[in-house]
């Protein structure tokens, strides 16, 4: 089983994405700063200044993660939905990231443990594993 498949959508995964993929700095348990000093809140609560950043659950925030891995040097990034006509094979999302001296399909449907039924979660899992692999290969 891939380590990324152990992550469920929520605050813990969102914080890992902020640190390892987005390169943000943790200021407090809730507050993060990006490279430009903009504030981002990750804790599941809304704040008067802005909503919480939830890439593992929110498509808009997941798209930021998708764009970040392209900026970081991924050669190819794709997100696809697979439907199934076979009742024994679940439909789901797959995010494939290639580059940084390796190619890895992170989310595969067809009954594997790392299957994700949402696009944001597939993107986050793929981005996290990709970023960790790239950091190890540098």
Biggest sheet architecture: 3 strands, antiparallel
Based on helices, strands and strand pairing, what is the structural class? alpha+beta
Rg, Cα atoms, Å: 15 Å
Helix content: 25-40%
- The spatial strand order of the largest sheet comes to 1-2-3
Strand composition percent: 15-25%
Order of helices and strands: HEEEHEEEH
Cα separation of the termini: 24 Å
- Low-confidence parts, pLDDT < 50 over ≥5 residues? 101-114
Query: What is the arithmetic mean of pLDDT?
Result: 78
Total of helices: 3
What is the tally of beta strands?
6
What does the overall shape look like? globular
What would the keywords be for this entry?
21% strand, 138 residues, three-stranded antiparallel beta sheet, alpha+beta, 31% helix, globular
Q: What do these coordinates show?
A:
With 138 residues, this protein is of the alpha+beta class. It contains 3 helices and 6 strands, in the order αβββαβββα. The strands form 2 sheets. It has a 3-stranded antiparallel beta sheet, with no helix packed on it. A 3-stranded antiparallel beta sheet has the order 4-5-6, covered by helices on one side. Helix 1 crosses helix 3 and helix 2 runs parallel beside helix 3. It is globular, with a radius of gyration of 15 Å.
């Amino acid at each position: 089983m891939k380590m990324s498949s152990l992550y469920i959508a929520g605050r813990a995964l969102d914080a890992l994405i902020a640190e390892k993929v987005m390169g943000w700095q943790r200021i407090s348990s809730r507050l993060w700063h990006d490279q430009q000093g903009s504030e981002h809140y990750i804790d599941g609560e809304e704040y008067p200044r802005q909503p919480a950043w939830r890439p593992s659950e929110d498509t808009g925030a997941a798209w930021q993660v998708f764009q970040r891995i392209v900026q970081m040097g991924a050669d190819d990034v794709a997100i696809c939905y697979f439907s199934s006509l076979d009742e024994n094979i679940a439909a789901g999302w797959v995010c494939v990231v290639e580059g940084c001296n390796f190619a890895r399909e992170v989310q595969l449907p067809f009954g594997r443990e790392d299957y994700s039924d949402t696009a944001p979660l597939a993107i986050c899992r793929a981005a996290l594993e990709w970023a960790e692999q790239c950091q190890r290969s540098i």
